[in-house]
Amino acid sequence: MVFESFAEANSFFLLTIFFIALVMGAIVTKTNFCTMGAISDMTNMSDFGRMRAWVLAMAVGIIGVVVMESTGVVDIAHMFPPYRGSQLIWAENLLGGILFGIGMTLGSGCGNKTLIRIGGGNIKSIMVLFLIGIVAYYMINPFPDSDKTLMSVLFYDWIRPLSISLKTPQDLGSMVNASNPLAARQLIGGVLAALMLIFIFKSSEFRKSFDHVLGGLAVGVAVLAAWYASSGMIQIDIDGESYGLMSFVNNWDMLMDTDIGKPALIRPSSPQSFTFVNPMGQTVGYIGRGFNSAYLTFGLMAVAGVISGSFIWSLLTRSFRIEWFASFKDFGNHLIGGLLMGFGGTLALGCTIGQGVTGISTLALGSFIAFFGIVFGSAMTMKIQLYKMMYEDASMTAIVLTSLADMKLLPNSLRKLESI
């Protein structure tokens, strides 16, 4: 789609992202697609229905990105965030994922679920959103009158040295075959997606669940639609030469006589798809700058779209309900959960959607590490909560050892409590 001005192209782009996110928000609300719920069902009830829906979204994303890259429909080499970066920040991916998994369990849902709950009338999720947003914002932006960020103060000096500098991008295709990464991604992506689909559809219960299938497909397709919209769909024609949004912004001084209408942030004009922690930080920054339109980004429209989609579906189904904190403990859990999701999601470069679907669609190794961390952090927290409730006098050491034994991460001989 070709436009004659950046303003027209950018406005169409932002409205497109809003619409995709709105549809995704409505369908996720309708189908109860929930990544924390998927881990809870799997951990506590051995029910893999919602986990299969999550994996279906991953499979759709992998297949779609492989096909679109192979046919030249998208070019996501300079994506934001840099999932395929040559610096493998495995410790940040892992620690961030674990912190995010713990946080989303305490905060009643991941970043996407927080937005869904806000649309459905959950006021306590508004607090979670702003806690995530404030932490995410100051993890990468300096404090007022300072050059320090939360990342530089708390993490950078000890965790960044653990990263590994690779000779290739960190997607599995490049790591396996640097001379022809596209062919390798086609093979690896095809095999991995096929294995995922076998796991998903071997369950007759899943095949019969319209909501699970629809939820997984909708999230996967939404991720692909966003990749396409931000990478290959929109072009700006200037004197017969075409520019994408990112290339236009990078060449702004050459193409434009004024800075009027220029985005304040360049990186959010890069090819990207859905993630929700960094966009919550962008939302806080947008509000703090007095709703300056120069700070309108993909991420902001994604946040607004998901909330709007959930809100509309809640009104249509008369399920909109105002919900407040049930107790001071509930407030404390959401407070800690929001803070941990802000730290963890920024460290890990994404959330259950950002890394667990969008990042994995690029076959980035760091995304798989972050996904493992999120699942482990959430499942471990759920186990600890359950054993604390059932064995009130048990020590934390006994609870942790038993939880790890339940998860097959320690031999059963180290179990200190009877299995629940």
Describe the structure.
This protein has helices spanning 6-31, 35-45, 49-70, 90-106, 111-119, 124-140, 150-154, 156-159, 172-176, 181-201, 204-208, 210-233, 245-250, 252-255, 277-288, 298-316, 328-347, 354-361, 365-390, 396-406, and strands at residues 2-3, 87-88, 164-165, 235-238, 241-243. With 420 residues, the protein is mostly helical. The protein has one domain (2-363). The strands form two sheets. A three-stranded mixed sheet has the order 1-4-5. It has a two-stranded antiparallel ribbon with strand order 2-3. The longest helix has 26 residues, at 6-31. The termini are far apart. The model has no long low-confidence stretch (mean pLDDT 95).
Number of helices: 20
- In total, the number of domains comes to 1
Radius of gyration: 21 Å
How are strands sequenced across the largest beta sheet?
A: 1-4-5
Largest sheet: 3 strands, mixed
Helix content: 55-70%
How many strand units? 5
Task: Provide the structure class.
Answer: mainly alpha
Poorly predicted ranges? none
Mean pLDDT rating: 95
Q: Span from first to last CA?
A: 57 Å
Q: What order do the SSEs take from the amino end to the carboxyl end, as H and E?
A: EHHHEHHHHHEHHHHEEHHHHHHHH
- The fraction of residues assigned to DSSP E strands is under 5%
